[in-house]
TrEMBL record, chain A:
GO molecular function, one term: ATP binding
Keyword Transferase in record: yes
Example of a GO biological process term: tRNA processing
Reactions this protein catalyses: L-seryl-[protein] + ATP = O-phospho-L-seryl-[protein] + ADP + H(+); L-threonyl-[protein] + ATP = O-phospho-L-threonyl-[protein] + ADP + H(+)
UniProt-listed InterPro entries: Bud32, Kinase-like_dom_sf, Prot_kinase_dom, Tyr_kinase_AS
Source organism, top-level taxon: Eukaryota
Family under the similarity heading: Belongs to the protein kinase superfamily. BUD32 family.
SMART domains: S_TKc
One Pfam short name: Pkinase
Keywords associated with the record: ATP-binding, Kinase, Nucleotide-binding, Serine/threonine-protein kinase, Transferase, tRNA processing
GO cellular component, one term: EKC/KEOPS complex
Protein name: non-specific serine/threonine protein kinase
Top-level enzyme category: transferase
From TrEMBL, chain B:
Organism encoding this protein: Psylliodes chrysocephalus
Catalytic activity from the UniProt record: L-threonylcarbamoyladenylate + adenosine(37) in tRNA = N(6)-L-threonylcarbamoyladenosine(37) in tRNA + AMP + H(+)
Binding residues for substrate: 130-134, 162, 177, 181, 265
Cofactor stoichiometry and binding remark: Binds 1 divalent metal cation per subunit.
Enzyme class: transferase
Protein's name in the database: N(6)-L-threonylcarbamoyladenine synthase
Entries under SUPFAM superfamilies matching the protein: Actin-like ATPase domain
GO molecular-function terms, A-Z: metal ion binding; tRNA N(6)-L-threonylcarbamoyladenine synthase activity
Record's GO cellular component terms: cytoplasm; EKC/KEOPS complex; nucleus
């Protein structure tokens, strides 16, 4: 890829930044993982590129903001998509606000995360890998300023493990995965995680009740496991 | 100077060891081995520990050349694990602590694995993959606790391997996982199997059901048992490496430590090594003496706790089958 420069190596892919058709673009290359069997690697990569593009399209249709897809190139194992310049990860955002002691704002922020997840689930989009690294905080006015929540959009990214599913089991697991990721990463999360559920419920309304029951189920499964040896 | 005696018996391994200031003086072990096609059950496993515990204790003391009066603290596995074997060994630890009038400390089994891995390999602050017959966790240290970033949402990876060994009637001596590893080396044809990763969590029960159902027909179609062992290992280890890599990226960590019985599988170590190399991270792993359940890891973790000033009340010296890694405050770590 000409004129593209490597900016980050995530767990799944290498991210390159450059210009494609005049647009500021991220090229997400799911490079060959030499540790796994070639046929497994090829299958997984193809599946995930498909999953990611499908989920991004589905979000677009549902009116949920995500990076726009410019090109999907199976041969190069790469998706070209919109580069969100004025953004930072929710992980960094939460840490910054925690340092400043802005707990009230963080509660509101968690509420918004719950809202976002509720919106995804309302449309039967299961993310599959929700962490604070996989949610971007984007400034609406195209400036590097993250001081006021009303100026910020939340954008979910990294849909490689996503799928479309209407049952409550997968939604419950999605919620559980997010909870675990937040609790293990952020000290503040334990206190304000209920805000996520609140935001989720507000968005997803009646559907949320059954998901919460499933989520409690999934949680209990985790705790009850005896873990011998 | 702390001399600690450690008792481990949470599953089918009975281990007793003596450690003196991080130096291993003895590390003795007996394994309860069941016939091919059978797993170990609590009652029989406890019986095995009961019959062997005093022999192993004597062996550990003799090898270490430490006299009971020189011991500073007696440590035992408090959990998690199988109830009956845990209780059997805890009774012995409690008894000798009273006879010799020494303090007693209950140790979390998972913490024992992690601390032993750090001691042996010198890893400083690694992301830990803990894989055994009963546990599958991806752990990183933060804010005075070993936090669980990912884990199995159903059965442990070692349990999946053990039970697949029973399907093929592979010998349990020295362990089903070791025998699968040897067979897998001779396999070459890759059979696609279910692959189940949810964020940093994994699931193995679906793969096991698939294997239990399909093994017979796969063998008839001309796949060899070696091919099946190979394919199973390639698939489930890829899941483990993938989720570990995800945790590594999420935590910005540059070290990986593999502990637990499955951790001595060289193919798993090799795959993890390749992943680490691709991201300039460093891999730390140990061999069967320390990967597989042992007494010395309990002694070592207990010694760390003891040095940090931790003491246990006599009435707290019970055992528990459920004891999560993140329940323990790591008072001995200063970072």
């Amino acid at each position: 890829m000409k004129n593209f420069e490597l900016i980050k190596q995530g767990a799944e892919a290498k991210l390159y930044k450059g210009i494609y058709l005049g647009q500021s673009t991220i090229a997400k290359e799911r490079f060959i993982k030499n540790y796994r069997h070639p046929s497994l690697d090829t299958n997984l990569t193809k599946e995930r590129i498909k999953a990611e593009s499908r989920a991004l399209m589905r979000c677009k249709i549902a009116g949920i903001r995500t990076p726009a897809i410019y090109l999907v190139d199976f041969k190069r194992r790469t998706i070209f998509m919109e580069y969100l310049e004025y953004s930072k990860t929710a992980k960094d955002f939460i840490e910054d606000y925690t340092k400043l002691g802005l707990i009230k704002e963080l509660s509101q922020f968690f509420y918004e995360i719950g809202n976002l997840l509720g919106k995804l689930h309302e449309n039967n989009i299961i993310h599959g890998d929700l962490t604070s690294s996989n949610i971007l905080v984007v400034n609406k006015n195209n400036e590097h300023n993250y001081d006021s929540l009303s100026e910020l959009d939340l954008v979910a990214i990294d849909f490689g493990l996503a799928h479309i599913e209407s049952n409550t089991e997968d939604k419950g697991v999605d919620l559980y995965v997010l909870e675990r990721a937040l609790l293990s990463t952020h000290s503040v999360a334990e206190e304000i995680f209920p805000k996520i559920l609140e935001g989720y419920k507000k968005q997803y309304k009646n559907g949320s009740r059954e998901v919460f029951l499933k989520y409690e189920d999934v949680k209990a499964r985790g705790r009850k496991r005896t873990m011998v040896g | 100077m702390v001399i600690a005696l450690g008792f481990e018996g949470s599953a089918n391994k009975l281990g007793i060891g003596v450690i003196k200031d991080g130096k291993i003086l003895s590390n003795c072990r007996r394994t309860y081995i069941t016939p091919p096609g059978e797993g170990f059950l609590p009652k029989e496993t406890a019986q095995h520990h009961k019959e062997n515990v005093l022999i192993v204790l004597k062996e550990a003391l003799d090898q270490s050349q430490i006299k009971p009066e020189d011991i500073d603290v007696i440590c035992y596995t408090k959990g998690p694990g199988m109830g009956a074997p845990l209780a059997t060994v805890a009774v012995v630890a409690r008894t000798v602590a009273q006879i010799w009038n020494k303090p007693l400390l209950g140790v979390n089994h998972c913490i024992g694995h992690i601390e032993m891995g750090r001691l042996i390999t010198g890893a400083n602050n690694p992301t830990v993959l803990y894989v055994s017959g009963g546990n599958t966790q991806i752990i990183a240290y933060a804010r005075k606790r070993y936090r669980i970033f990912g884990e199995t949402i159903d059965i442990a990876v070692g349990n999946c391997l053990d039970r697949f060994a029973r399907v093929l009637k592979i010998s349990n001596d020295p362990s089903p996982g070791y025998n699968i590893e040897q067979l897998a080396k001779k396999g070459s044809k890759f059979v696609p199997l279910p692959y189940c990763v949810k964020g940093m969590d994994v699931s193995f029960s679906g793969i096991l059901s698939y294997m239990e159902e399909k093994t017979e027909s796969l063998l008839k179609e001309g796949h060899t048992p070696e091919d099946l062992c190979f394919s199973l290992q390639e698939t489930i280890f890829a899941m483990l490496v993938e989720t570990t890599e995800r945790a590594l990226a999420h935590c910005n960590s540059q070290e990986v430590l593999i502990v637990g019985g499955v951790g001595c599988n060289l193919r798993l170590q090799e795959m993890m090594g390749v992943m680490c190399k691709e991201r300039d991270a460093e891999l730390f792993a140990t061999d069967e003496r320390f990967c597989i359940d042992n007494g010395i890891m309990i002694a070592h973790a207990g010694a760390e706790m003891f040095t940090a000033g931790l003491r246990m009340k006599w009435e707290d010296s019970f055992i528990t089958q459920r004891y999560r890694t993140d329940d323990v405050e790591t008072v001995w770590r200063s970072d």
